[in-house]
Amino acid sequence: MNCREALREIEMAIEEIKQKNKEIPILVEGEKDVDALHSLGINGEIITVHCGKEIVNLCDYIASNYKEIIILTDWDRNGWKLCKQIERNLKGRTKCITEYRLIFAKNAMVKDIEGIPSFINNLKKRIEGRRVRKKLRI
């Protein structure tokens, strides 16, 4: 996949998340992830895993209050384990939306949400740099 396609996939996912987040909360690991989502214009409800609650209690809270949740844990080994643990705890109680993690893992050369804003900026600079070089060859 080339840079333009990766950027397009990531930006489409972000736009979809913005729309869904108007009604569906997002679950992230920590405050830096919350800050990153805000910098991307995602301003709906965001819940952090590391909020002082045990995973089971956090999942009970989520299941009691939400029909759906967007899970955006990191896509490193621990993030995958955490996502699976949350999905197991919420099974049959709350729908877990995890496809955006897969889109980011496939298209971004970073391992977490907090790295996405700078990755997007760097990708845009790389694409713009290629455009400038192509124009100079004319």
Task: Please describe what this structure looks like.
There is one protein chain. By secondary structure, the chain is an alpha/beta fold. The chain has a single domain, classed as Dna Topoisomerase Vi A Subunit, Chain: A, domain 2 (3-Layer(aba) Sandwich). 59% of the residues lie in helices and 9% in strands. The protein contains 6 helices and 4 strands. It has a 4-stranded parallel beta sheet with strand order 2-1-3-4. Helix 4 links the parallel strand 3 and strand 4. Helix 1 (3-20) packs antiparallel against helix 5 and helix 1 packs antiparallel against helix 6. The radius of gyration is 17 Å and the shape is elongated. The model has no long low-confidence stretch (mean pLDDT 92).
CATH class term: Alpha Beta
What global shape is seen? Answer: elongated
Quickly give the structural class. Answer: alpha/beta
Give a quick account of the main beta sheet: strands, pairing sense, barrel closure: 4 strands, parallel
Order the strands across the largest sheet as they lie in space. 2-1-3-4
Percent helix, as a range, is: 55-70%
Percentage of β-strand residues: 5-15%
- N-to-C CA distance: 26 Å
Poorly predicted residue ranges: none
Number of strands: 4
The mean pLDDT is 92
CATH topology: Dna Topoisomerase Vi A Subunit, Chain: A, domain 2
Number of domain modules: 1
Under the CATH scheme, the architecture is 3-Layer(aba) Sandwich
Radius of gyration over C-alpha positions, nearest whole angstrom: 17 Å
- Please trace the helix and strand order, writing H or E for each element: HEHEHEHEHH
Number of DSSP helical runs = 6
